[in-house]
Design brief:
Largest sheet: 2 strands, antiparallel
Structural class: alpha+beta
Strand order of the largest sheet: 1-2
Helix content: 40-55%
Strand content: 5-15%
Radius of gyration: 16 Å
Number of strands: 2
């Protein structure tokens, strides 16, 4: 089991999470996907882990950030509803992206 460490930007809290092999495989998948898209590059520690938000990590426009988070959350929740239906799960489990509250 490996440990994944990161820092919460807003609070500067250091977080460490022990990851199982399956979780590491998922992270490797997205790392390879990013390398395929951008070529062999050094991973920017400020970048997003998963390609959910289609904005730059340096974006400062609150409206653009809010819109990107809202849009991504909507698509993810739609997909979660489909998966839940396929799995026979009758409850709603919304996915929440954290970010700036409101434009």
């Amino acid at each position: 089991m490996e440990t994944f460490c990161f820092q919460i930007k807003k609070t500067k809290d250091d977080i460490s999470i022990k990851l199982r092999d399956t979780s590491l495989e998922i992270l490797q998948f997205y790392k390879k996907l990013a390398q395929k898209k951008h070529g062999d590059f050094k991973i920017d520690p400020e970048s997003f882990i998963f390609p959910l938000l289609h904005i730059s990590v340096t974006e400062t426009d609150r409206v653009k950030i809010y819109n990107a988070i809202s849009s991504a959350g909507g698509y993810i929740n739609k997909d979660l509803r489909k998966l839940g239906k396929l799995a026979g799960i009758d409850k709603k489990y919304p996915f929440i992206l954290s970010g700036i509250a409101g434009p």
